[in-house]
Amino acid sequence: MRDGKIGIAVIGCGHWGPNHIRVFRSFPEAEVLWAIDIDESRRQRIRALFPGLPTEKDPRVVWADPAVDAVVVATPTKSHFELVKASLQAGKHVLCEKPLCTAKGEGLQLAELAAAKGLLLMVGHVFLFNPGILKVKELVDAGELGQLQYVSATRTNLGPIRSDVNAAFDLATHDVSIFNFLLGAKPELVSATGASFLQPGVEDVVFVSLRYPGGTWANIRASWLDPKKVRQITVVGTRKMVTWDDLDLTSPVAVYDKGANAVPEYADYGEFLRVTMWDGDVLLPKIQMQEPLKNQNQYFLECLQRGRVEKSGPDFSVEVVEVLEAIEESLRKDGAPVRLT
Ligand SMILES: NC(=O)c1ccc[n+]([C@@H]2O[C@H](COP(=O)([O-])OP(=O)(O)OC[C@H]3O[C@@H](n4cnc5c(N)ncnc54)[C@H](O)[C@@H]3O)[C@@H](O)[C@H]2O)c1
Hints:
This protein has helices spanning 17-25, 40-49, 60-64, 80-89, 104-117, 131-141, 167-183, 292-306, 314-332; strands spanning 6-11, 30-36, 55-56, 70-73, 93-97, 121-124, 148-158, 189-195, 205-211, 217-223, 225-237, 241-245, 253-267, 270-283, 338-339.
């Protein structure tokens, strides 16, 4: 802490890291003290964007600086584990970009380390702070939709193309985090197929099916090789249905009073099914648009002040990694179902 402000350092200043710097600089209770990147051209860009902000190649300056309270890790996923571990070992709280790491075992190690050191570890599952998703969660929790039958997600775009992880770890992470959040559980069964067209062994597109406790099914199509940017979710309940479209800036959430019921009926000739359908009003709830990253990082600062993290903390984030690992395993087995314990 310096001058009563929470000292922040950002490691990884490529596409996403500068957004963390911009957002943390907008909070009066925080001060961004360091921007770290191994690439000089990225550091140059940071100096142009944020004049006066010290930049460095080596993260050790951050770990050695007593004014740094918390570290944001915004480097490629494969490097998260080592950087988060070293930051915690240096006594720094950590906000790590999604996903926390690439293996459940690593995630558990990080969670244990944070707990042993009394430090906060939060992961940037940014959609948990998206006003549209929060509205959907509110509807689910209030029972407005009835029992959830299935949820589905489409997350596509042309790029950004990664080489350290596949489209499941990079893109479907978001949808897994959204579904685990909405349903309040992790799936019990996962099956996934996918294909690598650009780099061997790195799936550009994945098709994932997940079964959650209580029989709710989920489906995710995630691709960075697609002509169109789409970020959509559909939630189908026994009473109502909801759609969320992140790219619809005025009405991202629509609640459909629509559905179908199958009722067994009995007549002289035996039992038959009568399906009744209804098609009522569509409600577009008013949603206050706020930048999700700003909400997320504000929450992180509040957690630091309170000394505990409840949302997107280690347990939740390790479960997301566990699901991603199961997706990976199923991909390697041509879509064979993988059970989570
Ligand atoms: N929450 C979101 O919506 C969102 C969006 C984009 C990216 N991300 C996440 O942010 C992370 C970074 O993604 P990106 O798109 O910015 O990637 P990027 O490749 O554009 O940037 C990563 C940066 O990290 C630097 N770097 C790599 N290893 C380093 C190390 N050991 N020390 C210091 N710097 C290092 C690279 O030079 C590069 O500038 C990923 O985990 C990604 O999943 C999240």
